[in-house]
Amino acid sequence: LLAESYQCTESSCVNESCSPATNVCTATKGCFNQIQKFDTPSTGTDLVWKQKGCSSDTCSALTFSATLGDQRRFIYENKCCTTDKCNQEDITLSPPPAEANGVHCLSYYTELGMQNIPTLLSCTGNETKCGLVIGTAVGNSNLFPLVMAGMGCATESACNLTVTVFNNTNIHTFCSDEFVVSPNKPSVPDSTGSAGSMGFRPTAISTVPILITLLLLKVLF
Questions:
Q1: pTM for the full model?
Q2: What string of H, E and C letters represents the secondary structure of 110-177?
């Protein structure tokens, strides 16, 4: 028997720049509708990537977010559907929740040539896990093709993933209770701007580069 087929909207947008025309493709596995958003301290470096089309394999729905150090936040949402042009409408993202959920994570972010000091981050909404994210370049033959590394708050769905984002970076995520910051330690810089009695375990700052190096080795080998 022939597999059922249907039409899917096919388009791609980076920030406000979209493909010249909306095309249509024929799918048997499913239509997908995806948005990726990377918020930074400056709107000039923010990045939004939208893509719609036909799944080459069975479509897998996935939604996750992570708030990292240096005011970086990444949101990923991939929706699947199986009717004609069911992926035509754009995905609308909700604003990040402001209400703290009681979890405090070690917060850090670095790119090549960039330095960042670990701070304390108060998690909000459903970002209830503390995680580490490593980004490596797609198709790069360098031994250590590191693009970025960060730590912070994440949704449970963001834990232990390997996903390609923005079509050029493979991100690998790890969640651990070891990244959780105890609330009864001496005061340290707070990335939410509300320094108080909460702080790091004594070894937290010094072990950040070691953690990233060890996890990068785990990813690559």
A1: 0.81
A2: EECCCCCCCEEEEEECCCCEEEEEEEEECCCCCCCCEEEEEEEEECHHHCCCEEEECCCEEEEEEECH
